[in-house]
Design brief:
Order of helices and strands: HHEHHEEHHEHEEHEH
Largest sheet: 4 strands, parallel
Radius of gyration: 23 Å
Number of helices: 9
CATH topology of the largest domain: Oxidized Rhodanese, domain 1
Protein name: Metalloregulator ArsR/SmtB family transcription factor
Distance between the termini: 49 Å
Length: 228
């Protein structure tokens, strides 16, 4: 399948992913995977209003994740045919994996703080004024587009190995991501350090930058470099 001919397929995948991209829909789908339920019962179990639950259920139905049957005046929802239960299981497994990775990262940083060299905001601002660091945003491209630290280079962590040429080896690299509970920047620092780069991470990430009242940039409208 050529790249062009595969685009409609991936567009369909993206649409399915958008249908699942809501906390309440995933919660409702998980409840339905356990047993067939009426709309009223689903709303009760999920702690939603009947109207809100119905709206989310209709999204799931249009995407083909659930089907309905009527019993008198009541409508019952059940899973549609297809690998929906394995899909939910895979999502849960990935979430559990992420939690374990985060727990390992936190435990490692507490037991061996020397392994995770961090830079504070004051030093980062000074080094940015001196133009003596490369600021690396390792979040997804879509997150970077919405808002990032001015001047930061965006290389999502999964792409780091093949895009090393975009980083100057004669400058220290400062990586950041979504904040102190995000392990992406620490992983980037470990990977870069192993390859001979001088690297640290800005632990508080973009939320910490914003909390200091510093401006951010976006691909839609560039923010000012207030505070630099």
């Amino acid at each position: 399948m050529s790249e062009a001919s595969s685009l409609p397929f991936f567009a369909e995948l993206a649409e399915l992913a958008r249908s699942l991209g809501h906390t309440h829909r995933l919660q409702l789908l998980d409840l339905i995977a356990q047993n067939e339920h009426s709309v009223e019962r689903l709303a009760e179990l999920a702690g939603l209003s009947l109207a809100n639950a119905s709206q989310h259920l209709q999204h799931l139905k249009r995407a083909g994740f659930v089907t309905t049957r009527r019993d008198g005046k009541r409508i019952f929802y059940r899973l549609s045919d297809g690998p929906i239960a394995p899909l939910l299981a895979a999502l849960k497994a990935q979430a559990e994996f992420n939690h374990k990775q985060l727990a390992t990262f936190i435990a490692d940083s507490r037991s061996r703080p020397d392994r995770l060299e961090a830079i504070d905001a004051e030093e980062l601002l000074r080094r940015m004024r001196e133009d003596s660091v490369t600021l690396l945003d390792v979040r997804a491209e879509t997150e970077y587009a919405v808002g990032h630290v001015p001047g930061a280079v965006n290389i999502p962590l999964p792409e780091l190995a093949r895009r090393l040429a975009e980083l100057r080896k004669d400058q220290e690299v400062i990586a950041y991501c979504r904040g102190s509970h995000c392990a992406l920047s620490a992983e980037a620092v470990r990977a870069l350090s192993a390859l001979g780069y001088k690297a640290r991470h800005f632990d508080s990430g973009l939320p910490g930058w914003q909390a200091l009242g510093l401006a951010i940039s976006s691909l839609q409208s560039s923010g000012s470099k207030a505070g630099l």
